[in-house]
Amino acid sequence: MQKSNCQNxxxxxxxxxxxxxxxxxxxxxxxxxxxxxxNGVYPPGSTLYGKTYSQWSAAWWQWGDSLRITYHPLYxxxxxxxxxSGPVWFFGGHWANNSVTTRSGAVPSGTALMFMIQGAAADNxxxxxxxxxxxxxxxxxxxxxxxxxHDLTCTVDGVAVDGLxxxxxxxxxxxxxxxxxxxxxxxxxxxxxxxDNSAPNAPPWTIRGAVADGVYVLLAPLAPxxxxxxxxAQVGYPVYMVEDMTYNLTAVPVxxxxxxxxxxxxxxxxxxxxxxxxxxxxxxxxxxxxxxxGVVEAVPGGYQVALSIGSGNRFFRLRD
Length: 320
Hints:
Blueprint: E1 2-3, E2 8-15, E3 21-29, E4 33-34, E5 41-42, E6 47-48, E7 51-52, H1 53-65, E8 88-91, E9 100-108, E10 112-122, H2 135-146, E11 149-156, E12 159-160, H3 164-167, E13 169-171, E14 175-179, H4 185-188, E15 205-219, E16 225-235, E17 241-252, E18 257-261, E19 264-270, E20 277-281, E21 290-291, E22 297-299, E23 302-308, E24 314-319
Parallel strand pairs: 8-10, 9-17
Antiparallel strand pairs: 1-10, 2-3, 2-24, 4-6, 5-15, 6-7, 10-15, 11-12, 11-16, 13-15, 14-15, 16-17, 18-19, 19-23, 20-21, 20-24, 22-23
């Protein structure tokens, strides 16, 4: 039952009315948040991309539960960008053990980052049959687990985030998550072997009515360059779990570049993530964007697409 522990848009236009002309690069994003940013952190009570801290905490667990543990950033079996998309990326502690851990990787400089410092979740999965606990019972379970957390710290580039407890502790709304058919969080962290189905084409598991309680920090998009986020936590009286995590992050500006080579244009962008889709339209103010076509090729440091020059105007963007 219990587990302890939009879109940024990048535009470039190619004017072809008379001759191939490379136009200026444009960048825009959705309005990110209501509320001020304090030392690079959205304070509790902020609404970020239309969601509260509580609602983003549910999204954090949906991300964490959606991946196989054999290829999962929180198990150090996959890079930190695996499973990430949209305006907020998710980070946390070590789900395989309580060791001191350092992780490194690149993040888009225009993306907010959500760190779970410590948390617990509960649901009605169960073996051999699902359980039927009420939402209030599930909430009581995760609240009791989180009440054992203490001595939480977090620093961003050496600046402390003050008042983690109780200010940054939130309870999620009830949420649904989808987890892979095997090598999943239910088998590993909840000890439920009946959710391990390795048959070919086995469908994923859908679990409804989960709840979570935890301490989360939402960072505003980082400026391009190197950054360090470090956090610690202890659980239990006496202490039975100690967490000590360091993230060394390189914030990379996601810029869509364009170069003309004869009757072809090359569009390229950095390899901070594989989730971007190149789209095109004939009018910048249009809502009719569609895949730009071409074959995306991996090149040193990023990706590129070669497209033939036609007639008329085409505008391109990267959509996450």
